[in-house]
Amino acid sequence: MTALVSGAMAAPHAVLAPRAALGAFVLFCRIGGCLMLAPGFSNTQIPTQVRLFVALAVTLTLTPLLLERVPAAALGDDPILTLRMIAVESLVGGMIGILARLFYFALEALAVGAATMLGFTSPSGFQIEGDEPMAPLATLISLAAIALLFAANLHWELLRGLVASYDVVPVGADFNARLALKQIADVLGESFRLALRIASPYVIYALVVNLALALVNRLTPQVQVFFVATPFVAAGGLLLLYFTIKPAIEAFISGFGVWLISG
């Protein structure tokens, strides 16, 4: 009799364990897809194993809170429905991550442009792929923005938005491609407007300096003005960078934080 009772009690746990594991994997698809592309978590300088362990740790931490959001139909015996849900969850998580990443893509693009305008370009040329080295100035600005992301605790806002996404896009809902493209377009406009506002002092400096050098070169064509003035242009760029780098990074982090909190 005791053996029958213990067997009956163990049977539900044996059934619930695979369902809970499958539900945790469905949650991992969205959370892992977001952290795979999110700024800071997806940097190529971080080893792949570390990024995987961070995604697993975040998923296991949030599973008790979010497991009830996974519908029972997703944990059934229909493999087609389960595979469809896994694909949709991965797309939703990746979209959330890429929306946050777009801000840093815009900052990196404008930082490379600012480095070119100030004369601090990399000797090897421009960055084409994501794993290629950027100009030293662009690397400094990018790393400073990523460090401030964690220093300002904005990574917690990213995770909060990830949890809140289960209210906006529940597990099992269809992926709205039209809404996703609209959000990407909106974030692209907002991020490049923010990055351009940050890089505007360097753009104005480059325009004024190059216009002045062009006028001097027309007045004294015998002198190679651009070669003579290169150290002075670089010194002025460093002086401008000294006075503007702190408020520029703070403005970027402030704008990015407003988007995280409101978006």
Task: Write structural notes for this entry.
- The protein is mostly helical.
- It has one domain.
- Helix 6 runs antiparallel to helix 7.
- It is elongated, with a radius of gyration of 25 Å.
- The protein starts with a helix and ends with a helix.
- The N terminus is likely disordered.
Radius of gyration: 25 Å
Tell me which oligomeric state these chains represent.
single chain
The span between the termini is: 58 Å
On the 0-100 scale, what is the average pLDDT?
A: 79
Approximate helicity band? over 70%
Shape: elongated
Strand content: under 5%
* Helix-strand topology string: HHHHHHH
What number of domains? Answer: 1
Class inferred from helices and paired strands: mainly alpha
Largest sheet: none
Number of strands: 0
DSSP helical segment count: 7
Low-confidence stretches: 1-16
Keywords, separated by commas or semicolons:
single chain, 263 residues, mainly alpha, 7 helices, 79% helix, elongated, disordered N terminus
